[in-house]
Amino acid sequence: MNRFGIGFDGAVVNASNKSKFKKRFNYVGFGAVSYLISAIAMVFQAKSYSAEFEGNNLQKKFPNAFLMTVTNHPYFGGGIKIAPDEKIEMHNLKLVVFQKNNLIQLIGNLLTIVFGSFQYKMKSVYNKTLKDDFSLNVDSKQLAQIDGQVLNENSFQLNFSRTTYPFWIPTKSEK
User: Fold this and answer.
1) For residues 34 and 108, what is the distance between their CA atoms, to the nearest angstrom?
2) pTM, whole model, 2 decimals?
3) CA angle at 98 for the pair 92 and 100, rounded to the nearest 5°
4) Is 49 helix (H, G, I), strand (E, B) or coil?
5) In angstroms, rounded to a whole number, what is the distance separating the alpha carbons of residues 158 and 136?
6) Do 17 and 9 form a contact (C-beta atoms < 8 A)?
């Protein structure tokens, strides 16, 4: 897994995948536009939800979570930096939670990731680099996605851990 997202994230991927225009945009090299169009629509349609995090000797409740993602790299699809300080070589996972206190604040927060990656400076955005196992619980039914594959709307009780797998990459002499 590179990225797991729940709430707004899952709703955007779901709407984009169902879009009539996605294949056309992908064909001309503008696949990210279908995500942008879906994101604009979902800002007004997706609802906030209650979520709980437990791990790293910490418990945290998010009463108005809107977008919750666990990632090991900085980007959403289309090159948008959701976790600007994350590096795939670091072997960590990053939890980023956007909370929705009101629509104006939420739109401002979402624009920060499009135009400058300043989201960590905002009070309604929580981020934590995680080196140990942790869990997330969401009691209400939400759409989610794993690496762009939509999961059915459901409540979630998730446990995350990191595992390294060896890969064999052939050298030029082995090809």
Assistant:
1) 21
2) 0.82
3) 165
4) strand
5) 5
6) no
State the first-to-last Cα distance of the chain, in angstroms, to the nearest integer: 28
Q: Looking at residue 140, what is its pLDDT?
A: 94
- Answer with the residue of higher pLDDT: 174 or 5: 5
The predicted model gives 42-58 an average pLDDT of 91
Q: Contact, 22 vs 14, CB < 8 A?
A: no
| CA distance linking residue 125 with residue 66, whole number of Å | 10
The alpha carbon of residue 23 and the mean position of all alpha carbons in its chain are separated, in whole angstroms, by 22
Domain map (residue ranges) of the chain: 3-174
Fold held by 3-174: Tumour Suppressor Smad4 (2.60.200)
What residues are paired with 60 via a beta bridge? 53
CB of 80 within 8 A of CB of 53? no
Q: What is the pLDDT of residues 64-116, one digit of tens each?
A: 999 999 998 887 766 677 887 887 777 789 999 999 988 888 888 777 777 76
Length of the chain: 175
Under 8 Å CB-to-CB from 17, ≥6 apart: which residues?
A: 150
Q: Average pLDDT of the chain? A: 83
- With beta carbons less than 8 A apart as the criterion, state whether 51 and 137 touch: yes
